[in-house]
Design brief:
seven-stranded mixed sheet, five-stranded mixed sheet, 22 strands, 36% helix, globular, binds adenosine-5'-diphosphate
């Protein structure tokens, strides 16, 4: 371990690649970022150039070392957090991808998924992987690549190809092709991984027609993932931590005990509830997933996702031009007593958990002759809160039905992060609608921070997760202040509005 305990976090997200240099107290010393171009070959299809992801990652990592004025030899380790599920297949001999990466949002395998559901495979898939059959996850994307890139299936069977989510791809490139591995959180999003036995599932590999020779080795989140090739940074750096972005944020928020819950409010919103050593099977269409795996011990989570959170503010700004900037929404919302019955359901790309209604579309209901811009903007913010309540109610019902040996989960407080949480009005309304305290941490870069914490655990910068938990600092706290009657009235109006846009029940 180097003396100063510096960690380099690489946060490869859907829309950008970032590198942040953290000190041992979790303070960000320098950062660098590059936007990632999105490739849309046809409606519903989303790809990334995997080579560009690698180039940008390397460039931002080098930039951050430069800015921080530190050499590779001073870095204790690298932690990687990444956009999840996005699928890359490359040749082992040349390291060249056989196709663009297929991004998690891509819907090209919807028919394949419908077929799997029709033939009744969804129960087996859910029980092994904790996932709902959907194009979102990697397995059908792998199958698509093998079936649509000429020669790919034969190469795969001959062991000439490697599959990886973005973490594995970056790891392969960072180690000069020496390491083909992933961590348990990323593996848990492929739909090929048995989250209970913690290994690739042969039956699922057969079902999806994926040769096991393609798959990376699965390691803990804090583990020895090898070293960077010397030429990249002048000296080798240990790669010591990996987690998918939402799981990394869970670690960054130090949600280490059952019942602890975090919600990230960016473009979309992702809620993760720590359920401890128990994998809770959802009856309410949440996902069961690996929160993190440390020293061979798996901690599970229930996860719910909302597709549109901050994206509704972007639409109000760029589409309708009702506001100049997303933060303007705060003063507009605060200036009103209520929306006077105006409710927005931002189902622009369908509804996510717990509805999973891909064909639903957005609506603004309750408009009258004197409805105002402020009411519509406020309705956009309120929708984020009502959807969070939808998720929390579903998760609590799942946890209660599971009758956990560790006892019922008591939600104490919601830890929040992401760009939207700067909006104080929104955070207060969230606490009011959830009837739950909301805590905003001092560091809201929780994804990169979580990756840094994992690498720090492995390299001895942090002796234990308790040390990490002791670093967490609250910056602001919001306490519920709404009457139960008012909450019920508002949430009831939301439920009615949702019922009007749903295409399946
Ligand atoms: P991502 O990582 O998904 O790109 P961020 O965490 O950077 O997103 O958050 C940016 C999102 O938050 C944008 O969609 C933006 O509209 C929204 N946002 C940023 N600031 C505010 C604010 N003060 N009030 C409401 N929404 C905001």
């Amino acid at each position: 371990m180097t003396q100063n305990g510096l960690i380099l976090a690489l946060d490869q997200g859907t829309t950008s690649s970032r590198a942040i240099l953290f000190d041992r107290n979790g303070a960000a010393l320098a950062n660098a970022q590059q936007e990632l171009p999105q490739i849309f070959p046809a409606p519903g299809l989303v790809e990334h150039d995997a080579e560009q992801i690698w180039r940008d990652t390397l460039a931002t990592a080098r930039a951050v070392l430069d800015k921080g004025g530190v050499g590779a030899g001073e870095i204790a380790g690298i932690g990687i957090a990444n956009q999840r599920e996005t699928t890359v297949i490359w040749r082992r001999d040349t390291g060249l991808p056989i196709h663009n990466a297929i991004v998690w949002q891509d819907r090209r395998t919807a028919d394949l998924c419908n077929g799997l559901r029709r033939s009744g495979h969804d129960a087996l898939i859910q029980s092994r992987t904790g996932l709902i059959v959907d194009p979102y996850f990697s397995a059908t994307k792998i199958a698509w690549l093998l079936d649509n890139v000429e020669g790919a299936r034969a190469w795969a069977e001959a062991g000439e190809l490697a599959f990886g989510t973005i973490d594995s791809w970056l790891l392969w490139k960072l180690t000069g092709g020496a390491v083909h591995a992933t961590d348990a959180t990323n593996a848990s999003r492929t739909m090929l991984f048995d989250i209970h036995r913690q290994r690739w599932d042969e039956e699922l590999c057969q079902l999806f027609n994926v040769p096991p020779a393609l798959l990376p080795e699965v390691r803990d989140c804090a583990a020895d993932f090898g070293q960077t090739e010397k030429a990249l940074f002048g000296a080798p750096i240990a790669i010591a931590g990996i987690a998918g972005d939402q799981q990394a944020a869970t670690v960054g928020q130090a949600c280490f005990t059952p019942g602890m819950i975090k919600s990230t409010y960016g473009t979309g919103c992702f809620v993760m509830l720590n359920t401890g050593v128990d994998a809770v099977a959802s009856r309410n269409r949440m996902l069961t997933t690996v929160a993190y795996r440390l020293a061979g011990q798996t901690t599970y989570a229930l996860e719910g996702s909302i597709f549109v959170a901050g994206a509704a503010m972007q639409w109000l700004r760029d589409g309708l031009k009702l506001i100049d900037a997303a933060p303007d929404s705060e003063a507009l919302a605060r200036g009103l007593e209520s929306t006077d019955g105006v409710v927005m359901v931002p189902a622009f790309t369908g509804l996510g958990a717990p509805y999973w209604d891909a064909d639903a579309r957005g609506a603004i209901v309750g408009l009258t002759r004197d409805s105002s811009i402020a009411q519509i903007v406020r309705a956009g913010l309120e929708a984020v809160c009502y959807q969070t309540r939808d998720l929390l109610l579903a998760m609590q019902a799942d946890a209660a039905a599971a009758a956990l040996p560790t006892g019922n989960l008591v939600l104490d407080v919601l830890r929040v992060d992401g760009g939207m949480v700067e909006n104080d009005w929104l955070m207060q309304f969230l606490a009011d609608i959830l009837d739950l305290g909301v805590d905003r941490p001092a560091v809201t870069e929780t994804t990169a921070l979580g990756a840094a914490y994992l690498a720090g655990l492995q390299t001895g910068v942090y002796p234990s997760i308790e040390t990490i938990a002791s670093h967490w600092r609250r910056q602001a706290s919001f306490t519920p202040g709404m009457t139960a009657a008012r909450r019920q009235q508002l949430y009831g109006a939301w439920q009615e509005a949702v019922a009007r846009v749903r295409t399946v029940t």
